[in-house]
C-alpha cells in the first residue's frame, strides 16, 4: 500500500505510527464546563448530556475503521469533534503524531488538506450553482495548491477517476443522479490527496445497485491513493464488507471494537448481537431459523452523571443484574484486537446459536 | 422520550410462508390488471412512463413484496391503487379490483369511503407523515370517525387508546394528548400503523415503511406489523428496495424495473433461483450480514433508464449481464415466461433469455 | 411561560430605548431654532432665550434626554408651542382616526389575501394563480397616495358612489358616544347601524388605499406557505384515511400554512397603524399622520418625539403579542420551553 510522506520527522517512525489516535474523547452539551463563554441568557434546552463519552480508538495507515451505531449514538458528534468542527470537551486527538487540539486556526486549516470528509446527503452537500468541475476545483483554490492553471486539469482528472466523464464536467448538480453526485463529493474530498478520509454514511441515501458501485469506487481509490478511512455507517452488512475493524457505539460510548470478521462471526456484546440479529438477511430460510432479539424502546443520549451500564435497560443479559446496575463496565481485551465493555461478554452467544448465518 | 415498556422480548420470525402465487381465484382481495400511469412532463416534454402495464393478485392475508429501486415506479403504483396519484401524475388505464369492485371506476366520494377502511396506507417517512400541530389522538380519532359517524367522542378516544396500546405505545391514554414532535421516529411509525389498521382494512399498502428507521427499530416495526395484520387477516402490499426485508416478511415477491414487473414468484422460489438477470444482479450486489464476501462487489453497471425516453426493447438491456448488446433485447420487448413455482402455482419472468439466466443462476 | 414574556418585554424595552435615542437625537439635529419659529423673526433674543429656557432647550443634552424619557413615561407629553395645545390632547384626539383606518386596512388586506391565496393553491389552475400574483405585483408597485387619488376620482368624482375627502362622517351625522373613539366600532357597539354604515363609507377608500400594499405582501406570503404545505406528506396521509381533499386542506394545510404568516401579519398591522401620513393627506383624514407631518414642518419637537416613541412602543407591543400568540398556537414552541 502506498503511503504519502507525513509532515514530521522520521520516515521509519511515520510508517508505523497510526494515522489517527483518539484518546478519552468526550463531548458534553449543556453542562457548565461545556459552554465556553457566558452567552446572554441562552442555555441549551434540556438537561446536560454526554454525547460522546470517553471514546478511544486508533486508525492505522491504510486501514478502514468502521463506526457503527444507530441514530442518537453520537457517531456524527464524534466525527465532528475529531475534526474540531465542534470543540471537544476533553481528550486528545493525534493526527500523524500532531496534537490536533493544540493547533491554532491557521494550522488547523492547513491540516484539513490532509483530512477530508464525504457527507451523507448527495443532494445537500454540493453547491447547486457550481459546475462539477468547479466543485472539485474549489479545495485546490482554497488551499492554494499548485498553479492556478493546473488546477482545472487536476480536478478534471479526479472527476474522470471517479467515473464522471469529461463531457459532463460543466454540468451542475441538479443534472446528476444521487450516485453521480456522491461521486463528485468523493472527487472533491480526494483531489487534495488527503491521507485520511472520513465518510459519514456515504451510501445510505443511495439505491442498492448504486451503493455497490460507490463502494467499489471507494475501495479502488483506497488502493490507488493509499487512503485510510473512517467509515460511519448504520448498515452492518456494509460495515462488515467494507471495513477492516469496526467500533460499535451506543449512547456515546464504545461497546465493542474488533476486526470486522470476528465481530460478525462472534459478537461478544449483547448490543452488537442484537444489532446483528436485526439486520434483514436476503435468505428466507436463514430469516426463519434466526431468533431475533427484538429490543424494546429506543436510543436516547445519556444524562451526565448516570451510573451503571448504559445498555442495561434494554439488555437481555444484564437486565436486573446488580453489577450491571451499579458499575459502568470498562473496555476489556478478550483477544488480540478485540475489546468489549461488558460484565458478561460472550454470554449472549451461548443462548443464541443461530444469531448469524454461516460463512460463504 | 424513552419508551421502555418491558424487558427485551425474544420473538420468533414468521413460520413457513403460505404457498400463494396464483393458486386459486377465491381469496383474491386485490387484483391489479394492466395498470398504466405516467407523469406529464409539461409543454414540449414527453411524459415519464412510470407504470407500464403491471398486473398482480393479492390474496387474503398474503404478504406481497414489491421490490424496486428509485425510478422503478413502485411508489407511483401504490398511489395509483389508492387513487391518490395527483397531477402531474395520471393513471391511463387498467383495473384495480378490490373485493370485486373496480376502484378506477369510482369517483373520489366513493373512494373516500374505501380509503382508510378497506384499504389503507402506511407511508414511508414517519417524520413528515403526521401533522405537527395536531395531537396524536386527534389524528387517530380522525380516521376512526371518518368511517363511523355515529361514534361518540369518548368512545372514539377509547378506541384510539386501544390502538396505541396495540402498537406497543405505553401509557396510551396520556400519550394521546402528545404532539408528534414528542414521539421518536419509531413511535411515529407505529402510530402510522395504528392509523392504517384502525378500521381493520382488507389490504394495507406499506410504502417503504422502515426505510427511514434504524435497523433495530425496523425489526420492531416489522414484527409489529406482522402480528397485527395477522390478527386482523389483512393482506399487505409491502413496497421496499431491501431484499432482506422481503425475505423475512413476504410470502411472494414482484420485482419492478423501469415500470414493469420483470419477475414474480414466491419468496422461497425467488431466493433459491432468480429467473431474471436484474433480480439476480440486485441480490448479488448487496453486502450481507450472514456471509463474508471478499473482493469487489458485483455491482450493476450504469444507472436506471430515463423513463421519458424508453426504447422499444427491454429497458434493462444496457445494464444486463445476459442481454447487453444483443439485438433481440435491444429491439423487442421481452415476452413473459411462466414456470411452475415449487411453492404452488406459477412464477413468471420477462426475459428473452430466461433459460440462459436460469442456468447461469443455478450454476453459481 | 412567564419567563418567556418577561424576556420578550425586556428585549422590547431595549428597542424602545434605542428608538428614543433616535427620536431625541434626530430632532435635535434639525437646523433652526424652535423658539424663534414660535415667536417670529422680530422677537428679541432675550425673549427667545426665555422661551428656550421655558422649553428646556438650554439645559445640557443628557438632562434634556432624561427629562424627555421621564416625562414620557409619566404621560406628561409636553406642550406644543406652535399649535397651542398639549401634545397629549392633540395626539389623543387624532389617534383613534388613524387606528381605525389602520385596522380596517389590515382587515381588508387579510381577507383578500386569504381568499387570493386559497383560490391560487387549492386547485392548481395557472390562470387563476397568475391573476392573483399579478394583483400582488400591482399592489407592491402602487403608491398608496396615488391609489387614493385614483379611487377618489373614480368612485367619488365620476361615479359618486362614495363620499369624498370630507372627513369621517357626512355633515349632519352625529358621531356615536365615545368608547374607543373609532366611529365604526363605537357605532356597532351602540347598535347604530346607519351611523356605522356612514362611517364605513367614509373610511372605505382610504382603508383600501392603505391596505393594498399589505395585501400584496400577505397574499404572496400565504400563497408561498400554502404551496410549501401542499407538498407535505401528512396531507397525503390525511387523504389515505378517507378524508376529502377539502377536509384535509381545511384541517391540516391551512393551520400549518397560517402559522408562519402570523409574525409578518403582526408587523404589518403595526406598520399600518403608524404609517398613514400620505393617505391621510389625500383624504384629509383627521388622523395622527397629518399631525406629525405638520409638526415636522413646524419643527415642533414635542409632537414628533412623542409620536416616534409611541410608534416604537406599538411595534414592540404588537410583536410581543404575536410572539405569545405563536407560542400558544404552535405546540412545538410551547412545549419545548416547558420541557426545559
What structural category arises from helix and sheet content of chain A? alpha/beta
- N-to-C series of helices and strands of chain A: HEEEHEEHEHHHEHEHEEHHHEEHEEH
Name of the CATH first level of the largest domain in chain A = Alpha Beta
CATH topology of the largest domain in chain C: MetI-like fold
- N-to-C order of helices and strands of chain C: HHHHEEHHHHHHHHHHH
- The CATH architecture assignment of the largest domain in chain C turns out to be Orthogonal Bundle
Major β-sheet of chain A, in short?
8 strands, mixed
Helical content of chain C (DSSP H or I, runs of 4+): over 70%
The averaged pLDDT of chain A comes out at 83
Radius of gyration of chain C: 24 Å
Question: Could you say how many structural domains of chain A there are in total?
Answer: 2
Overall shape of chain A: it is globular
Spatial sequence of strands, sheet with the most strands of chain C: 1-2
Beta-strand portion of chain C reads under 5%
Describe the structure.
The complex is a heterotrimer of chains A (360), B (364) and C (340). Chain A is α/β, with parallel strands linked by helices. Chain A has helices at 11-16, 75-82, 105-111, 132-142, 148-161, 178-190, 208-225, 236-242, 260-265, 270-278, 284-289, 322-326, 347-351; strands at 20-29, 49-59, 64-68, 90-95, 98-99, 115-118, 196-200, 228-233, 245-250, 253-259, 291-294, 302-303, 332-335, 338-340. In chain A, the strands form 2 sheets. Chain A has an 8-stranded mixed beta sheet, with helices on both faces. In chain A, a hairpin with a 2-residue loop joins strand 9 (245-250) and strand 10 (253-259). Residues 1-6, 33-44 and 355-360 of chain A have low confidence and may be disordered. Chain B folds into 2 domains: 28-250, P-loop containing nucleotide triphosphate hydrolases (Rossmann fold), CATH 3.40.50.300; 260-302 and 314-363, no CATH class. The termini of chain B are far apart. Chain B is built from 12 helices and 13 strands. In chain B, strand 2 and strand 3 (48-59) form a beta hairpin. With 340 residues, chain C is mostly helical. Chain C folds into 2 domains: 1-82 and 298-340, no CATH class; 94-287, MetI-like fold (Orthogonal Bundle). Helices cover 78% and strands 1% of the residues of chain C. Chain C contains 15 helices and 2 strands. In chain C, helix 1 packs antiparallel against helix 14 (301-329), helix 13 runs antiparallel to helix 14 and helix 14 (301-329) packs across helix 15. Chain C is globular. The chains are: A alpha/beta (360), B alpha/beta (364), C mainly alpha (340). The interface between A and B is large, with 65 and 63 residues. Strand 11 (291-294) of chain A pairs antiparallel with strand 1 (9-12) of chain B.
